[in-house]
């Protein structure tokens, strides 16, 4: 029996909410794997907008800091001193969900830099590169800005936690709004990049097929934990789901056009082969 009624409630977690949260953690991890694999398998991050990667990285940092400093999350973590380890793990699954997503997107950022198109590092760049191909400076901006953002948000959040605890909710709301705004802006350059290239390239359709519906389920699960007071935590995933859905539709259209175009070329080649062979024999 715990002294805090709130902690007493956490000591007996809702079974179906717990099951949903665990499935979401696994779903988030699985949804990012195809994107990671596609970049590694292709050996290039071409097709990924540097600004999509940068804004998504900063957004994920803000989202993680948001739920960590949210007063309800702080209360959950404090209750872990009074409840069992299993109940504590269940109470913190919301934090784990966003933490896993942060790790997965940070992995995309690292892979984007590791497999950045090598031609972009040539000085001067080769003339055959399209004018909208990312340049060396883009890779530097993404890497440096991501590191500075992580360090800055971490230091400021620590300051609020230990010296300005009465303003934690305001800081959490700011981080949530920042994450939502950046997440919204994030998909504009990627939508433009994909539309400009008219190809999917390193963008993974498989990942988006899982992530689009998963974004809304994720938002619902977070709402169950933090309620309307924590709207800044789950609203970002509603925004992300809508915009990522638009990108998914665009990617599927271009992918089908590319495949149908390849099939037509293959068909034309097969139709010409017998004629070429017969003309060769008659000669």
TrEMBL record:
Residue numbers spanned by region Disordered: 260-283
| Protein keywords | Membrane, Transmembrane, Transmembrane helix
Q: Which domain of life is it from?
A: Eukaryota
Alphabetical list of InterPro entries matching this protein = LAAT-1, PQ-loop_rpt
Look up keyword Oxidoreductase and say if it applies.
no
Gene3D superfamilies, sorted: 1.20.1280.290
Per the record's keyword annotation, is Membrane included, yes or no? yes
* Gene Ontology CC annotations of this record: membrane
Please give the start and end residues of each transmembrane region.
Answer: 15-34, 46-70, 90-116, 139-162, 168-188, 200-222, 234-254
Membrane topology term reads:
Multi-pass membrane protein
Q: Name one Pfam family in it.
A: PQ-loop
Q: Where in the cell is it found?
A: Membrane
Q: This chain belongs to which protein, by name?
A: PQ loop repeat protein
* Annotated source species: Aureobasidium subglaciale (strain EXF-2481)
- Native organism taxonomy: Eukaryota, Fungi, Dikarya, Ascomycota, Pezizomycotina
